[in-house]
Amino acid sequence: MNDKKGIIIAGGAIGIIAVLLVYFGNPANMGFCIACFIRDIAGAIGLHRADVVQYIRPEIIGLVLGAFLLSLKNKEFHTKGGSSPFTRFVLGIVVMIGALIFLGCPLRMVLRLAGGDLNALVGLAGFVAGIYIGVIFLNKGFNLKRSYNITKIEGYIFPAVNVGALILLITAPAFLFFSEKGPGSMHAPIALSLAAGLIVGALAQKTRLCMVGGTRDMVLFRDMYLLTGFIAILVFSFVGNFAFGFFKLGFAEQPIAHTDGLWNFLGMAIVGWGSVLLGGCPLRQLILSGEGNTDSVISVMGMLVGAAFAHNFGLASSGAGVTANGKVAALICFAFLAIVSYLNSEDLVKKKSSQALSKANVE
After folding, report:
1. Residue 182: CA atoms inside 13 Å, Cβ hemisphere, count?
2. Where does 24-105 have alpha helices with state H?
3. pTM of the model
C-alpha cells in the first residue's frame, strides 16, 4: 500500500469510519481526536476531575493494538528507545496543551473542517506555520540524538497496558470515572469503537500516515504522498457528513470549538512545531508506540500528563473561548520549543561555539 492509490483508499476509509463513529454516538466532528481521547482517558483514571471529559476511549486502544498486530505480522515490530526521553516527555505535554487550546489534534482539525467548521482553517494556518518553524530548525541540524535497540519486552509493555485498559473499560470498576454528561458521555458502542480503532491503526501503520510528516515532506521535498492521505480523509468525511446531515458551514456555534482566531492559530502552531521536533503528529506517536518505539511511548505519556495539567490548572479551552491561564501556558510552550529547538540544532550550536572560540583567540 506504499503508493498514492493505497494511501487514498486508506484515507477514504478513515474519513468514512470517523463519520460513522459520530453517527453511532461520538461527539460531533470527533469521530477521532487523539488529543481529546487521551484527555478523556486521563480523566477516567482520575488524573483530572473535569467530569464532562472522562471515558476510556476504545479508539485509542484499537489504534495501538492495530499497529502492534500488523507490525508483528509484517515483521516491522522493532523495539528501540533512549532518544532524549525527558525532552520528549515534556514535548508531549506541550503538544497536548496546544491541542487543548485549539480543541483538537491535527486529525480532528481535518474532521472539523470536513464538518464545515471554518475555525479549523485558522488552526490549519497555525499548524502549517508551526511546522515551517520546525523545518527551519531541521535544516539547521535539529535532532534529539539516536535511539538504540533494546529488549523486546520493552516494546510489548505499552500494547499490554492497552489491553489492560480495555479490560478496565469492559469491567468498569468503581475506582474509574465516567462522564454522565458532556463530550465524555458521548461515545459509540465499545465493540464498534474498538473495531474502528483496530482498522485505522492498521491502515495508519501500513501507510505511515502523519499530518505533520506530510506537511514537512511537502515543504522539504515537495512530496505529496502523506498529505494525499489527509486530503482523502477530508474529502470522504465531508461526503459522509453531508450525506448524514452533519455538515454545518460557519465559524459560530460549532461543536466543541471556539471562535478565537488568534488562539486557534497559536494553539495549532504549538502542535505543529512540537510535533516536528517529536518526529510525528499525535496519531503517528500512537502508531509508533504500537510498533515498539518507546520514545513515542514516552511522548504519549507526556500527552497524558499534559491533558491532566490542562484541566487541573485551567489551561484547556472550551466553547466559551481560551482561558487566561491557557494564554500564559501557550507563551511558556513557545519559549520551551524555541529553547529546545536551538540547543538541539547542531549547526546553530557549532556556529555559536565557533564564534566564541574566535573571539577568545582574538582577545
Report:
1. 15
2. 34-44, 58-73, 85-102
3. 0.96
pLDDT for 291 equals: 98
C-alpha distance from residue 6 to each of 2, 29, 96, 195, 204 (Å): 6, 25, 30, 20, 11
Domain coordinates in residue numbering, the chain: 4-355
CA within 13 Å, CB half, 138 = 19
- Judge contact between 285 and 147, C-beta under 8 A: no
The pLDDT tens digits of the residues spanning 251-264 come to 999 999 999 999 99
Q: How confident is the model at residue 3 (pLDDT cuts 50, 70, 90)?
A: confident
Cell of 209: 500516515
Instruction: State the amino acid at position 2 in one-letter form.
Output: N
What CA–CA distance (Å, rounded) separates 164 from 145? Answer: 32
The residue behind cell 465524555 is 184
User: How far apart, in whole angstroms, are the C-alpha atoms of residue 343 and residue 345?
Assistant: 6
| Alpha-carbon gap, residue 36 to 57, rounded angstroms | 10
* Mean pLDDT, residues 265-282 taken together: 98
Element spanning 228, H or E = helix 225-244
Q: Which residues contact 301 (CB under 8 A, 6 or more apart)?
A: 89, 92
- Strand segments, DSSP code E, in the chain are 80-81, 148-149
Question: What is the residue whose three cell numbers read 511546522?
Answer: 131
Angle formed at CA 6 by CA 138 and CA 10, multiple of 5 degrees: 85
Q: Cell 501503520 sits at which residue?
A: 205
Task: Determine the 3-state secondary structure of 312 from DSSP.
Answer: helix
